[in-house]
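Postdoc handover notes: sequence design on the structure in folder B. Input tokens:
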């Protein structure tokens, strides 16, 4: 039994075919593991929209008897109370110094040279990342999804700052389609920080695909096992 904080094992180098095969296998495994959660979450979203608030057996009985099934959907009102509270008290990222290493920086401005706490410098950088990412909107979307269905996702990734050089910047983003995320089902941490892999799927037009990846070779799925063909 290894300790939880042990270093992850370094994976051996893989060929492109091995990487694709591993991705297909992991995709099927994650989709199967998340299937029940996704079904329950979809039922929750339907309930929020007033689609399945009558039990199916009762609805069928009333329809057969010529009776109406009137739905007075009060759920959005209660959801708005929760999400409204979150919008008024936006979450934020705060940096706290854990030790004295790099605790102070020399900062020079119009007033001369002065010491600035490292935690304050880093927090300023984080605030800039949140501002440039419109992070509040993404926090709102992820929280709305979580309240409605129990599934809300936030991502942190890098993008090129401009088209002139190779400088990259951090970006905070949510996921528009909450059902498109497949995380490692063996992850144990609530924030999925110990996940070994994750998928965020999207569908695009063939013309858009060709424009983005003009040299890519489009592969077939006929030779894949049946479960992988169904998944992709």
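Designed sequence:
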């Amino acid at each position: 039994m290894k300790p939880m904080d042990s270093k992850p094992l370094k994976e051996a180098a893989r060929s492109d075919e091995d990487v694709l095969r591993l991705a297909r296998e992991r995709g099927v495994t994650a989709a199967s593991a998340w299937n029940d959660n996704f079904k329950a979450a979809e039922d929750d979203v339907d309930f929020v929209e007033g689609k399945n608030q009558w039990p199916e057996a009762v609805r069928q009985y009333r329809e057969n008897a010529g009776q109406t099934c009137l739905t007075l959907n009060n759920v959005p009102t209660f959801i708005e109370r929760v999400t409204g509270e979150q919008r008024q008290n936006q979450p934020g990222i705060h940096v706290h110094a854990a030790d004295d290493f790099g605790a102070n920086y020399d900062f020079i401005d119009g007033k001369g040279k002065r010491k600035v706490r490292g935690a304050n410098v880093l927090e300023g950088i984080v605030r800039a990342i949140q501002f440039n990412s419109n992070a509040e909107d993404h926090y709102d979307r992820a929280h709305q999804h979580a309240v409605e269905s129990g599934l809300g996702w936030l991502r942190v990734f890098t993008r090129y700052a401009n088209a002139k050089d190779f400088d990259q910047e951090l970006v905070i983003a949510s996921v528009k389609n909450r059902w498109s995320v497949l995380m490692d089902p063996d992850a144990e941490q609530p924030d999925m920080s110990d996940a070994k892999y994750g998928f965020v799927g999207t569908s695009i037009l063939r013309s858009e695909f060709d424009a983005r990846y003009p040299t890519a070779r489009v592969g077939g799925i006929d030779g894949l096992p049946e479960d992988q063909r169904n998944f992709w």
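Context for whoever picks this up: The helical segments are 16-48, 56-64, 75-88, 118-132, 135-149, 206-212, 226-231. Don't rerun without checking with the PI first.
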